[in-house]
Amino acid sequence: MDRSTSGSLADGPALGNIAGNIGEPVKLTGLQLNGVAGETVRDARTIKVWTRLQLTSDDRLFHRIVEGLTDHIEYRAREASRHVVLTRSSHILLVIHPDNSADLWLDAAAINLNIMAKRAVVAGAPIFETDVADVVAMSFPLVEIAKDDRVVCIFREGWRFALFFDFNPTGDFSISRMERDLALLWQIFRNEPASTMRTSRWRRPFELGDDGCPDRWQGW
Does the pTM exceed 0.85? Predict the structure, then answer.
């Protein structure tokens, strides 16, 4: 099942390709992101560092981690004379290359969800929430990710957020493993009890637009 944030198909799609990126990435440099501190220390000593992690905004560490990452990304964007506010985006994908240059995709990369359907379907038929038995992979099929790249992904589902990063210390990035982990985050959202969902939806403050719907988040 292919999903594009454009909501429409490109004119004359190539055979087997029913979605496309709807924009270009922001080009950045100096993204020296290689890990996240896994513990607090007050002096110089060996500490635990996370180089790969996935979690949702229900986790108590989510906000601290994501704010540190996004502050650095927005700082590098300002250095490149690009003003970006990451809290305004629903899907953020950052691909960092070995020279610390990076491609920042903000609601612009095509997203592919591989699902297990509960019923028989034909190509072009609508898929509803009740048709989905399981989400087995979430991918960015038209974004090039090399073996020695690093990846940060933040996305929103409803009123909640998910974070995935792999700073790839071995230089052997696994796209299939990333796709499975992103799908697991989707499944966490889908399987969350309704009462918990209602509580977490109002965790972070936001502004309302003219139509009374959330217009801009004030934080993660």
Answer: no
